[in-house]
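Sequence design from tokenized structure. All designs in this work follow the same two-part layout: the structure record, then the generated sequence. An example of the structure record is given first.
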């Protein structure tokens, strides 16, 4: 494991105060409102369940053929007081309802030696709560992977004016056999000397290590790793380790080794290779958004004809070319529309 020194950690108290939480701080109704997505379809397929020695799970996400990111606290066994061996860890990409078809043992992993296991899930650990895992199998060829992106001022402005959208998806413990997501997360602020990002999407146990994603200009990228649950003025929020810290040109000495390991992962990610099983449209998410926006009725079964007509109607109302086709571009258009016109009946 790489050796790092602890960076200075200062909470921006004028903005928010964080309190570590091992139990979910989000309301149960908010968690249940998360939309179940099809883990077998991109852009969800790079996310998976990291099973840790038969003692629970976290979420992780692919950033290369064999490389993934998660939270460091997921790899520490607090019962025995030690870091788990790589052989105790197993990653199941695009996991859904007992489908383990894309799985790999973990060959090795890196964490920051500045991470303090005794503090576990806490604001004190947020800036160092990261882990880079290397798999024995190139699952990324099947699932695709995310590129890394900095949540800079330009992107924040696009989020503010509704032309980009933040998303969170993972395997919360109460629904651990399906992937659920929340769309249109709201940026709340920064913490931990700007190493952390706070947002308002509901999270729970099991979501640790999940990506905070941004959809912008037709591209989906990871901007952070979920590491802590928190409160701001008694409202639950999620605390994310910003990936900004791993930019090679901006990395502090404590993160330089990790930054070097991630240096070729900035920019566009990679969809699953054409013809692969996970190279298919995210129809479940598209149907959920069409329903939330009032273009589809609540139904467990949607025919392709119903979907096509709903898409055409949406496109016509948005003054888009009405081709009726499901696509990643359509997913982004639906996400932006929901962000600007949220529906209380959304599921």
């Amino acid at each position: 494991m790489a050796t790092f020194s602890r960076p200075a950690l200062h909470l921006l108290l004028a903005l928010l105060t964080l309190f570590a939480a091992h139990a979910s701080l989000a309301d149960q109704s908010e968690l249940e409102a998360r939309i179940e997505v099809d883990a077998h379809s991109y852009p969800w397929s790079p996310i998976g369940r990291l099973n840790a020695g038969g003692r629970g799970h976290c979420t992780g996400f692919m950033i290369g053929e064999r490389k993934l990111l998660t939270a460091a606290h997921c790899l520490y066994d607090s019962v025995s007081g030690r870091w788990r061996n790589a052989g105790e860890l197993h990653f199941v990409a695009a996991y859904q309802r007992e489908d383990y078809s894309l799985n790999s043992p973990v060959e090795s992993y890196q964490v920051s030696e500045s991470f303090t296991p005794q503090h576990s899930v806490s604001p004190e650990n947020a800036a160092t709560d990261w882990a880079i895992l290397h798999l024995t199998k190139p699952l990324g060829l099947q699932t695709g992977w995310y590129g890394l992106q900095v949540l800079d001022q330009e992107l924040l402005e696009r989020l503010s004016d509704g032309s980009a959208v933040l998303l969170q998806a993972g395997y919360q413990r109460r629904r651990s056999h399906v992937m659920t997501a929340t769309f249109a997360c709201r940026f709340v602020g920064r913490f931990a000397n700007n190493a952390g990002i706070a947002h308002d999407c509901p999270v729970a146990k099991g979501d640790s290590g999940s990506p905070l994603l941004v959809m912008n200009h037709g591209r989906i990228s990871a901007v952070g790793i979920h590491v802590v649950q928190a409160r701001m003025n008694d409202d639950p929020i999620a605390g994310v380790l910003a990936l900004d810290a791993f930019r090679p040109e901006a990395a502090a000495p404590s993160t330089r080794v990790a930054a070097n390991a991630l240096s070729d992962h900035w920019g566009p990610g990679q969809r699953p290779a054409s013809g692969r099983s996970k190279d298919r449209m995210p129809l479940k998410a598209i149907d959920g958004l069409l329903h939330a926006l009032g273009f589809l009725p609540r139904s467990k079964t949607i025919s392709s004809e119903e979907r096509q007509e709903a898409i055409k109607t949406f496109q016509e109302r948005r003054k888009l070319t009405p081709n009726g086709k499901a696509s990643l571009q359509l997913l982004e258009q639906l996400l932006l529309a929901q962000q600007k016109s949220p529906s209380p009946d959304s599921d």
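The mean pLDDT is 83. We note this feature because it recurs in several other targets discussed in the main text.
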